[in-house]
Amino acid sequence: MPATQIRRWKTLAVATSAVLVGITLPTLTATPASATTTAYDSTYYKNAIGKSGTSLKSSLHTIISSQTKISYSAVWNALMATDQDPNNSSNVILLYSGVSRAKSLNGGDVGDWNREHTWAKSHGDFGEVTGPGTDLHHLRPADVQVNSIRGNLDFDNGGSAVTNGGGSKVDSDSFEPRDADKGDVARMILYMAVRYEGDDGFANLEPNEKVNNGSNPYMGKLSVLKAWNEQDPPSAFEEKRNQVIYDSYQHNRNPFIDHPEWVEAIW
């Protein structure tokens, strides 16, 4: 290439660079891959958007504490609606086992399904009282025997297979749900920890890193629950359940189904 052409090319390159330096490019804000948006962000969750840590937890507590409470006897019919089998309207899907069972088989006998408190009633001593004892966001239909095996155990990994448990495991101090229910359980437990903060006559429920919590108002293990939330994202079944509770019963939502990334933002 002749020297004059080289000089012209360099001059053009320098001029072009100068022009580009003068251009102000739009600032791009990265959105975390796990972040979600919902139709409720500008209404229901408007006071929580953009917050994290204790500020987010406090805002969510205020939001979800506005709810309609139902009686424990009313929970039977409510679960028949919230946990209805999408492929068979006469059945409900059971937590832990994943079995589809007739709605009419609700009760306490072998082969029946009953009302499982994922946040065990004894962890905070709230029993079946209207409030935490009847909150549909942590109550699920479960096989009577599987429910009995779970008892009031904390949640953790490990153990031996639960008979008819769909892959769930149990040991002396903890219960591990089947993979398809791990995220559900995590989000239900963490909902309870935000909803019940000790300001309404009930215990302040909190997750911790222990098992064998007994009657203390704690549930473990938090690190495992967080991992389960990541491992098993909200399913269509879980999202529909959240909507039915909001529309037809309690008129409040589980924020961790709508925004699973808020688990990490708080804990």
From TrEMBL:
Signal peptide span: 1-35
Keyword Hydrolase: yes
Pfam families: Endonuclease_1
Membrane-spanning parts: none
The keyword Signal is assigned to this record: yes
Chain intervals with Basic and acidic residues compositional bias: 170-179
Entry protein name: Ribonuclease
